[in-house]
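Review box. Two proteins, two foldings.
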Amino acid sequence: MSSRACPAAVLFDMDGTLVDTEDLWWDACVEVADGLGSPLGEADREALFGLSVEDAALHISGGPGAGAVESLLTDAFTRRLKNGVTMLPGAVALLEALHAAGIPAGLVSASPRPVVDLVLETVGGHRFRLSVAAGDSARNKPAPDPYLAAAARLGVDPAACVAIEDSPTGVASARSAGCAVIVVGPSGAGSGTSGTSGTNTTSGTNAVTAVPTLESVDLPLLRRLVSRAPL
């Protein structure tokens, strides 16, 4: 692969990365926890950030009855999603740029398949070559399995892919799969990142590059990350 080659694929997390669903997820968790007589606090909000439904159910239930809590969470979250979701700034422009460049986009989510399919109906499933949801791989995030599964289905090397995430759980999954990683959100905003420069927040061959929003991600940045060129 030459230093100017395009990424083999760009693999997107869904909730909080492409679509603004974090408050909807929190509201669903609060509803379920209140119904179980176990109200959540602000510390729980941070703990639940980026967790799969399975892990969130374990957190809320403490273990017993986690399977039933998982179903309650999925139902509560899906009910809110049916009112529509908003794509985050820069998402549509980046997806269109990837399409124009012939770079496949994949969706790699820790959410259940019904949730993923519902969001895809809103944002446009045609924008993605494939989607991986909870249950589509042996283990969910933070294990590398979802990203490895996406790369295998696309027939590409994970090391030739860029993953875009917003949570520590997702970043751990993508890094352990060998992908170059961009993390979007406050960590990027606080780093002084602007334009397409990016800021490496960790070292190594698949370092994490922090940006404030997807508006800071473009094709030159993606190419640099895959080619291992200095930022």
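Next protein.
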Amino acid sequence: MRVALTMLGILAIGAALLLPDVSYARPQQIETPVTVTGTVTDFKYGRRGEVEGFYLDNGTEVRFPEHRAWEVTQAVTIGTPVLVEGSERVGRRGDVHVKAQVITNTSTNTRVVIEEVVNVGGQIVEVTYSRSGRMNGFVLNTGDVVRTPPPLARALAALPADASVQVIGMRRIDKNGEQHIKPDTITNRATGRVIWTR
């Protein structure tokens, strides 16, 4: 009986490895798109004293990555009227805040784009790897760099070397100043199958 169960397990794993167009998904926190306006009353600081957001006069808390703080504080100061486009999120402690995608100083029309929704298609011309040797994304012939999560590596490895894909996601700048797309969906354009959805 044990031998039979072991063989079934091996066969199931083998079958999973051979399926190129399987969709992989992971649970995601629900985010509601929002646009809020108000006047900045104070900045939010992290444990190390870094700016990671601000508060509006209507009580809204706005957050953004700390490595973008310099850009934001050049465009926005206390007393600045702003328009914030982003998504409403619930934090680990149940706190509600807005994750900023675009912050606009409405008195000067200065914009800071934290994240940009993109829909790009192209051929994969290069696969990228982390320092540990794990596949962590790919480069399209459009020049766009796509960063992918670990569960997607197997599906990408099964695609042809010059596969054509459609990527919908967020273009952002990481803490090293490099621009990349964090995908929400990746579709194999040849088959129309979605191989990743977040």
